[in-house]
Amino acid sequence: PNLIGKTASAANKALINHGLNLNLINGTLNVLDSAVDDKSAIVVSQNYEPDSKVPKGTIVSVEIRYISGVGD
């Protein structure tokens, strides 16, 4: 699925619905799991093209940015 622009939480739900797993990254650093519930954590890139065919259980890495004012 296309995860760009979604919150980390919405991206996680979309991946779960497709039988996939989420790996949050922020640049080269792993982000704490609490980012999944943070409305200001927005997906800016993903390692698979939207609508790519990947096996169930695949880990999809997404890069997030914290956007101030989102979810306030």
Describe the structure.
The radius of gyration is 11 Å and the shape is elongated. It is built from 1 helix and 4 strands. Strand 1 (21-26) and strand 2 (29-30) form a beta hairpin. Strands 2-1-4-3 form a 4-stranded mixed β-sheet. 14% of the residues lie in helices and 31% in strands. It has one domain (8-66).
Annotation keywords:
alpha+beta, 72 residues, 4-stranded mixed β-sheet, 31% strand
Largest sheet: 4 strands, mixed
Query: Overall 3D geometry?
Result: elongated
Mean pLDDT: 82
Number of strands: 4
Spans of 5+ residues with little confidence (pLDDT < 50)?
none
- State the domain count: 1
Number of discrete helical segments: 1
Q: Give the structural class.
A: alpha+beta
How much beta, percentage-wise? 25-35%
| Lateral arrangement of strands in the main beta sheet | 2-1-4-3
> What gap, in angstroms, lies between the N and C termini?
26 Å
Question: What is the H-and-E element order?
Answer: HEEEE
Rg (C-alpha, Å): 11 Å
What is the helix fraction of residues, given as a range? 10-25%
Furnish the topology, listing elements before pairings:
Layout: H1 8-17, E1 21-26, E2 29-30, E3 41-46, E4 59-66
Parallel strand pairs: 1-4
Antiparallel strand pairs: 1-2, 3-4
What is the gist of this entry?
With 72 residues, the chain is α+β, with helices and mostly antiparallel strands.
